[in-house]
## 1
Amino acid sequence: MEEQASYILRKCWGLPLAICTIGGFLASRPRTSTEWRNLHEHLGVELESELHDIKKVILSSYNGLPYHLKSIFLYLSIFPENHEIRRTRLLRRWMAEGYIAKKRDMLVEDVAARFYNELISRSMIQGSKASRGVGVDRCQVHSMVREIILSSFIEENKLFLIEEHSNDIPQSKIRHLVVSRWKSGGEKLHNINLSFIRSLTIFGECPASLISPKLLWLRVLDLEDTINLKNGDLEHIGELRLLRYLSLRGTDISKLPSSLQNLRYLETLDIQDTQVTQLPSGVAKLKKLCYLLAGINFSKDLLRNKHTDKDSFLPCLCCNPGECCKVFNLSVSAPEGIEKLQNLHMLGVVNVGNGNDVTGRLKKLTNLMNLRRLGVAGLTEKEGQDLCQSIGELKQLRRLEVRSDSLSFLAQTPPRIPGYLDSLRLCGNLSSLPKWISSLNDLAKVKLLGTQLKQKDIQHLQNLPNLTLLGLWEKSYIGDSLYFCTGTFLKLKFLDIDGLDEINAVTIEKDTMPKLKKLWLNNCPSLHDNNFGLSGVPHLLNLNELVLKKCGKKENLLKILQRQVSDHKNRPKLLVGKSIVLRAHPRTPTADQ
């Protein structure tokens, strides 16, 4: 096999994309010399003289894809060059298009995730640098790969791109329409036959009147981050009866039309990071709805978030003791009858408090037996207790997010929290971390905001056997030093500290976090400008990336860290501001590679 490997490498001319592509292909094939010899012969002798054109290598890998991966791989050409594609967005679009078939023992979502991971492992798509944490939650397609699959997708699936310099409108039936960098006044849109389009995706400005009743066969309407989208542009949305995926995420939409209730096949409704605060009552009629995403995304700047609509979104969101945390204003009121949506897998963030019959409404949420992710906000002390006692009925729940002025109800009577949670997000004043958290053996990700914890609370997290990501964000910790003791956080791969403006020292003892790959410190201006500011970096034997940003002028600390990463066996990247101060050794792969 070594002999065959040398032949194949010779034909790749040392080009990284060619090597990664062929390597990904071989990794999925039987490991025999015969298999490798067949590939070598298939590549052809001509490649030795013309693998400056590595398209043939990429096409060879594409042709070697199993049938179930080919269509979803071509589908990636819908997204613009260098666009960072969110994993969940891609998976839900695949499902809405009907590309993912349900298997007897797996949910469709899990099948789609498996296919996504296959494409990553074959190096057909790349993990994005914007991916945070330990999973590849965003991906990109290499520009040359996209160029190849774009032509194939246009030919095979009738894709048409409307850009600044588009070609003439094709006479054949268009299945997928993408509008990118559109300028008003263009005549192209009037000449397109919309009646056969199955997906409409817009990047940039939304052309007026494009969302038309003529889109009879539309399954996917993706308007994420569209500019100048107005409520009136959605007036015909209820006539798109076959729609399965609707994303308005990141737009200026503030109200959904009542005709939304007509979309009886809708599976995904994404209105996250919009100005929508109330769902139409008819949402309860969408029996096939699986993913309902609303409110403001759980992010580091959630407590600092200021929305343009000052009447609906208050900028004062938790911070000083005694002040009211208005995080629950960044959610959407749960409509009556939401418990009827038995197919819901994801619900959040919805405000289940401050209404009539709150206790009854919380109990009704337990009817959603397929729920895997739940985000709730606006709970009073009594309502929080009701939630804790009811939530144990959700046997499929894997991720829980709770936002409230006070989260003290979590630390009182041990709640019936499902022990199989793998993700926990808390936003609000907690003061003390509940002891029961240490019993969540499947917990892999914890993100905290405004919880105001102390050093003793870290003990409830340090021995979680599967914790891989810990985010300590603004106001989550109120001590002046943070200490990680020996023999703890054994599975942690990503530690993200952000907005702890009072902390002056972070200490990591030897034999702590042995698997840590990323250590980020942002917005911690009080750090000491000496070796006490951040100590223990040499103990992190698997570290690939160290970030120190917006922490003020720290010349001495920076010099110390530069010396430590230079002597580190992995030579991790040290990022300060927007610059990479020290790069990893070229022979050492980094997390981004």
## 2
Amino acid sequence: MGEETLVAMPLAPHHHHHARLDALPHHVAPSSPPPPQPTVAGDNNKDEEEEERDRGVVESPPARVARPETTTTTPPPVLPAAGEEVYYARRMLQGAVLRPPPHLPQPEAPPGLARALSAPAPHGHAADEEEAEDGARQRPVDRSASANSAAAVVDVASIGRFLRDRRAVLSSAITRRISSLKEPSSPSDTYGVQEIHLPNVKVTVRLKDAIAADAAAEDGIALDDDPGYSFSGGHIKGRVSFFSRSGCRDCAAVRSFFRNSGLPYVEINLDVFPEREAELASRAGGAARVPQIFLNEKLLGGLVVLNSLRNSGEFERRVRDLAGRRCPDSAPRVPVYGFDDEAAAGEQTEDAMVGVVRVLRHRMPIQDRFVRVKLVKNCFSGADMVDAIVNHLNCGRDKAVEIGKELARKHFIHHVFRENDFEDGSQNLYRFLEHDPAVPKYYNFRGSTNDGEPKQAAAVGHRMTKIMLAILEAYASDDRRHLDYSRIAASEEFRRYANLVQELQRADMTALPAEERLPFFLNLHNAMAIHAVIRVGQPGAVDRRPFFSDFQYIVGGHPYSLAAIRNGILRANRRQPYTLAKPFGSNDRRLELAQRRANPLVHFALCDATRSSPIVRFYTTQGVEPELRHAAREFFLHSGVEIDLESRTVHLTRIVKWYSNDFGQDRDILRWVLNYLDPTKAGLLTHLLNDGGPINISYMNYDWSLNV
């Protein structure tokens, strides 16, 4: 609908039209024909004709040639050019909507509008009037009318302008997007593909240089525009892989070199994938130590060999040869997500008491009961369990009680108020571990209890630390201040970590040596913080309960949150800031694992996944004390303290204010901080402490944003 449509509003008196026509200097006004005779159609037809005459009609323009014969034998007269112009002018002044000539495209009514018949042309030539009357009977001329009112006139020109504007907007949008493809692509566009997204339209454009690059890669041609070993464009066809272990300095150096050079690589961490140790021994020899680098299936060597080849330029030549050869199947395979170590799975044995537990789970009368004005859910009495054991094993009640105590010691069952291990009687209520109402908060619990033989907590903690170190080395920045939580959540390392911490459900924590409890809970806290970000999100600036209190692990049959570990275990059961109650009651079995005294250094070893918290670290059993002192020095070196000598003000981290009971009074805090400052800050603080003047202590704002 690109044609223009002329619309003129009607002017009431007809003699005014003739006066306007006489005023036109270049038009010849013909004499007015006699008025048409009324037809015998009743008053209603007369009124309809008058209404149509008043609002204007749609009529085909006269042609310059004679029309085909109709019911009359006399052909219609041919209007001269001047007469045709006078005819168009008269029709415009009468308010008629003029249609294009028949040989041109005719306008259509927009959707939602009805069709109405137009009336014959009033006051036209006699032949035209007769043709209009015949055409109304044989070929009616349609005119757009409103769906609600047949007498309404539609402004076709406005509809045409609207459609032209929308077409222009769509055309300009496509033109701009296609024009932008001529500009150089951004570094993130590694595959040379641009996509255009419009409503109901998706255009994908493949650039010629990208097609040429792919063709060159298929032919085994290394691109010359890649400087050094930079293969960030993804054109390498071979595979660079190396075997590593968590916490290995040589492995960290190899990893850093590959990252800085932009060379894609595959890392196989033997602490995460212990089943690959035999493969390394068969490829590099039984005495080989990590790291061991492979170019496709060929062994390159360790860090010393890598440095030698780099210095001679041989490594660059070998990698460029690798870029043109596909990786054979004999090369070390890429670790696959979702497949566990079959050998480790075979070592998992069921607990000796599982048979009895399975019978009791089906036979025990588990129900809700009112005790001490409380509704206790999913519980049974000690007498009910004793009776079930006696009937199943055909033994005495004393033997059944001993079996019940063994089930409680292995954390298959526990007292509803955790007051005792197991006793016979109807007043002592117990429940199975999986029936605890708080199970939805236990994020290391997946529907059912781990019925395997409980492993030593120290062994589980050691493997957990190795996996988390591998996660940090792969998905954290070099300074450990920024973590990629989305990649961590989708990694095989994290999947194996989530499976591993299920073994803590029934671990015997009382068997954990005292010297290993501090590093165990430090590492557990930092690992739980990463898990909490992935599952519940970052800690909020106002409501932090879901992160610090509601997110829990079940460890040794008891629940532990981040707040319980920090305040109950590591701070020797001290009150949390802005609370009145201690984390553990006097009869809580978790008190046996709490530290004997609060160590202020633990506050700079715990990461809560925020920008103002200390960086995430994991600690060893042998060197936990020097590692804690190093963590404190690193924290105060970067952002923990600022000293303004002119205003005699020391700006400290807000962590010190929250846990001031662990540090002492104002000057005691400054003397304690002095031990962990670098020489410059230590000299300034020593000057303020020794000159006898007042010292102002100010606390910095805490940044609760996520450390990404």
## 3
Amino acid sequence: MSRLPVMSSSKRVLGSSSSSSSLENGQDFAPAQKKLRKDPESVKPQAAATVIGGKRPLVAATRAPLSRTVRGVGAATVAVGPSRGVLKPSIASAAAKGGNVKQPAVSTGTKAGGGGAPRRQAWDLKGKVSDMEGKIRNYQTKVKSVNQENEVLKGSMVQSQTRVVEVEKQLEKQRNQIREYEGELQALSGVRDELEKVSSDKDTLQKELSNLEVKYKVMETLRDSQETELQTLKMKLSVQESTLARLQTTLRDTEEEVRCLKETVAQQKDELHAGEMERRRLHNTIQELKGNIRVFCRVRPLVDGGLSKHIQLPDSDIKMITLAKTEESHTGKTADTQKNYNFSFDRVFGPKASQQEVFEEISLLVQSALDGYNVCCFAYGQTGSGKTYTMEGEEFDDSRGVIPRAVQQIFKAAEKLGAQGWEFTFTASFVEIYNETLRDLLYTGKANKRPEHEIRKSTNNEVTITNLTYEKVSNEDQVLGLIALANQNRSTAQTAQNDRSSRSHSVFQLDIEGVNAGRDVKCKSTLCLVDLAGSERMLKSQSQGERFKEMTAINGSLSNLGIVIAALANKESYVPYRNSKLTYLLQGCLGGNSKTLMFVNIAPETDSFGETLNSLRFASKVNDCVIGTASANRK
């Protein structure tokens, strides 16, 4: 109980002494800390000081005790408790945190006084405080010595930096000298290369000089020979001049002769053109005398060959055909009677007539298309009578029909006329009339996107079809390819009378435009070739369903064609062309500015007598028609 006041008073004394010691330390260390702040580069020379002294940096060693001197006193203050001897560990820990405190100092610091002093008792706090104050004074003395050493090192560092600056200046100066030397060295190396080059050029020039001297000697020799040759050429030149004068005289005579020949050629070209125009005029006159609408009759042979008995073709007359029909007596008392039906046409072809023989009769009519006249040729007859064979034929040359032969003739004639200055352009189209609907046979798109077509009549009375495919063609093969495409797209079907019966009317049209630039003449025409669908009777064809609908449309359009033909034959004021698509499309061919040819095809079978008689009667009406005189479309 009596120790408590002493402990409290000692604590106060220790606190005041520790605070006073800390103030003294702060005053002593303040200049050093200010110097360190002012000179931030003072850390670098410490490495040199470490090397010289063989110890750790002194500045760092002094700073650690400065920041922990008060803590050391505090440790001693805490160690006042009599039950714990914690002074030695606290001092050891403080020494470990400081950079300059050695291990032996810790062992001595725990004793009261120093080297051989006895250890103080735990209650002797005043003695311990005095020991600690002694240690603090020792540390302060060491700090002052370290600061002095630091000042010395700073001075040596400044000198070293000054020396380094001087060394760097000398180094930079030497580098500049090295660069100058290198520049001089490069200049000297360039001079050396140039010297070598000059010496090499000198050797080359010397060699060239020697070569030129040799060439000069050779040239002197050549000069002498050339002078000799020049004298010879002068003599020849005088001879050539005399020859030239003679040839010039001959040339003038020849030019005069060429001029005369050119005039003759121009005159002959004029005569040739006049002859071509005269040929066209006479050709047209012949066609007009034959009739602007003509009818040819062709009899199909029987399947086993020959001719049926009810058809008679006189050998002496190639324009006559007779149908003979034997009628039985209804009473049986009189003999059977024979009734004859006689028909006369522009030409009748028997079953033995070839495709070439048939085409020769219409070749002149095809020529009119190139002369600028519209030409139309169509085939009429019952189903199975040979219309398609007549118009298109087969792939073999002997069996080719009217359409491919007409195309071949057109292109051959156009090539011949090209020598007279004519240039032709051709445009082909192919359309069919199926169930009174127009279809483009050259259409290659999707079936569900097929466009609709309508017949339009322009202001100059030309009949055109909307949305139709028009192909530019330049040779026969292109046209034949289009015809093959059209045959694939055309509507055909099997009936009781024909395995491959045409169920539509097909119209092939070739537009022709010719220009003769030298004569300033133009012509435009159309070649129209039509294959009509066959007329048929329901009892014979046994058409049902869709075939019956097709048969009705075909017979209706052919009936309207007959009505138009009758109106033209009777010279009626109104002709019902618009009653069907067929007559509306063929309006220009039937009653306009066109040369028209009709083939009437008849079947030789006996059971076809009625259809044959109707076809021949219809053809006779057409033959009796008189249409206006066709005129050439020339400009």
